[in-house]
Write a structure and sequence with these properties.
The complex is a heterodimer. By secondary structure, chain A is mainly β. Chain A is about 0% helix and about 50% strand. By secondary structure, chain B is mainly β. Classes of the chains: A mainly beta, B mainly beta.
Amino acid sequence: GAVVSQHPSWVICKSGTSVKIECRSLDFQATTMFWYRQFPKQSLMLMATSNEGSKATYEQGVEKDKFLINHASLTLSTLTVTSAHPEDSSFYICSANLINEREGRVPFEQFFGPGTRLTVL
Amino acid sequence: KNEVEQSPQNLTAQEGEFITINCSYSVGISALHWLQQHPGGGIVSLFMLSSGKKKHGRLIATINIQEKHSSLHITASHPRDSAVYICAVSLWSGTYKYIFGTGTRLKVLA
């Protein structure tokens, strides 16, 4: 259980276009999903926390108008990179927290998607 | 100083060797997590610890809450263990979040 999928796994686009990445929890419900960015040989950098039915919370320095996040349901969050530029090329990973209805949300554990490699030409 | 420190940053071992990766943290935590990231990028959760010790196959993870320190051990290492191992702590900061260590890049040679 606790499987998270991402689509697409890789995408190449031209500068100025928009790209949408989907993150789905396949076998559980997640009120909160997280979007990360990772540059080569660096650690994960949290971009935003996405809560179902409400606006995402962005980390300092992340442009919310450039990285649009929508969390329409308990199993789907999307990240849209608008007007992409070469500097947006990176590896984007989502994660979802698991709600254990019997035991509550503590302790907290995230399950990660396989990632999306974005290359902007 | 990072809130989660890992050592070593890079590690090369011969197949069969016993491997230890260390993690120290400086904040109050809900739990500590060991993650594995393969070259393709996918991240797998290996362990979640709030006390004591856990074992899964050739992997052992321990945590000392008083000393704020955790170790990940790999016994009888194999080339397929080559990956980046990431220590992360989960804590409440208005919402639950992970703080990640910088990762340990492990290469096991045949």
